[in-house]
Amino acid sequence: MLTKKNFEILHYLMIIIVPIIFILLPLIYIKYIAWIPLAIVITWVIYNGCIIDKLHHNKANIDTTLTDNITPFLKLFNKTLAIYIYKKYLQNTNRPTYIIFSYFVLLVTIVCYRLIYNIDYIKSINS
Q1: Cα(first)–Cα(last) distance of the chain, in Å?
Q2: CA-CA distance, 19 to 13, in Å (whole number)?
Q3: 27-79 tens-digit pLDDT
Q4: Is 31 exposed, middle or buried (0-12, 13-18, 19+ CB in 10 A)?
Q5: Which of 4, 62, 70, 120 could bridge 96 with an S-S bond, Cβ 3.0-4.6 Å?
Q6: For the chain, what percent of residues have pLDDT higher than 70?
Q7: Residue among 2, 95, 98 nearest 53 (CA)
Q8: Sign of the CA dihedral 27, 35, 65, 13?
């Protein structure tokens, strides 16, 4: 198992290396890896946190502060459904935060693919 210091260094390296990879890789390779951040965020929603944290729970510095920032939004549409979803799925978890974050990562992934394929389309027109 990793020590707490090594565990934190691993997370910091991942946070630094992933954006650098997206900046330095040629466009041809980014097409195939642009979905990876979305897959990571989906695992956060499923496992209620990072799977690496779950594997090293005794070593990780896990924030146990629970948030509930999606139920007020759901109450705008249907109060009964919002209360049901909160009690059934969101109570005592950080999933609402991960769900909202996954929405933004999904948008960024869609924009990334649209830009990639628009660049390819423009290249094919010009050549």
Answers
A1: 54
A2: 11
A3: 788 888 888 888 888 887 777 777 666 665 554 445 555 555 667 777 888 88
A4: middle
A5: 70
A6: 76
A7: 2
A8: negative
> What tokens does 2 get?
């990793």
Compute the residue count for the chain: 127
- 3-class DSSP assignment, residue 76: coil
Strand, coil or helix: what is 126?
Answer: helix
Q: How many CB atoms lie within 10 A of CB 29?
A: 12
Distance (Å, rounded) from C-alpha 51 to C-alpha 118? 34
Output the CA–CA distances (angstroms, integers) from residue 121 to 20, 22, 29, 114, in the order listed: 25, 20, 17, 10
Domain ranges for the chain, please list them.
4-126
